[in-house]
């Protein structure tokens, strides 16, 4: 007498517990949707920061003089130990008869993990050189030397794009993986 061939077990919605159905749904739809929302939030933040940085290109300018250029090095001691190098440029300008000093380079100054990147920024600002100082017309206490540049905006944009791409791949791939997972009732 021939031996019966075992039939591949199929899992239908009726054989899954409600808890398993919930996790199955979340695996297929919740994770990609969450990633998509995170990506959208980072993209929105990045776009807003880029727009602010670009608006600064139209701010009025005052001639400024570089007082000093240096690099500040900060060593992170908690978690992954890293070293960041921050270009520090102090510039001076006269506004309304008053001599003022500032040190803000761009809308969001970031540190660099490589010393040569920080040095490349400083190469543009040797002591004594003259540069236009961009003054925010809505808040004259905010001044920058590098309008249109925003490292954090670029980071947020690329981070957002990454999340969106991962979300799209997850929406495409997770249903295939989740449908192969067998949810047994207990």
Automatic annotation (TrEMBL):
Residues 63-148 form the DUF3592 domain. Pfam families: DUF3592. Keywords: Membrane, Transmembrane, Transmembrane helix. The lineage of its organism: Bacteria, Pseudomonadati, Pseudomonadota, Alphaproteobacteria, Hyphomicrobiales. This is DUF3592 domain-containing protein. The chain crosses the membrane at residues 22-45, 155-174. It comes from the Bacteria. InterPro entries: DUF3592.
């Amino acid at each position: 007498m021939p031996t019966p061939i075992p039939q591949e077990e199929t899992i239908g919605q009726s054989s899954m517990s409600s808890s398993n159905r919930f996790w199955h749904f979340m695996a297929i739809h919740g994770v990609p949707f969450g990633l998509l929302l995170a990506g959208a939030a980072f993209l929105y933040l990045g776009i807003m920061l880029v727009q602010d940085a670009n608006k600064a290109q139209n701010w009025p300018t005052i001639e400024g003089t570089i007082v000093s250029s240096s690099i500040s090095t900060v060593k992170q001691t908690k978690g992954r130990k890293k070293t960041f190098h921050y270009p520090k440029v102090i510039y001076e300008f006269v506004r309304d008869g008053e001599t003022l000093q500032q040190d803000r380079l761009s809308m969001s100054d970031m540190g660099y993990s490589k010393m040569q990147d920080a040095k490349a920024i400083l190469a543009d600002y040797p002591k004594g050189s003259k540069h236009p100082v961009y003054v925010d017309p809505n808040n004259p206490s905010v001044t920058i030397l590098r309008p249109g540049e925003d490292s954090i905006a670029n980071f947020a944009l690329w981070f957002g794009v990454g999340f969106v791409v991962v979300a799209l791949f997850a929406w495409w791939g997770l249903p295939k993986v989740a449908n192969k997972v067998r949810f047994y009732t207990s």
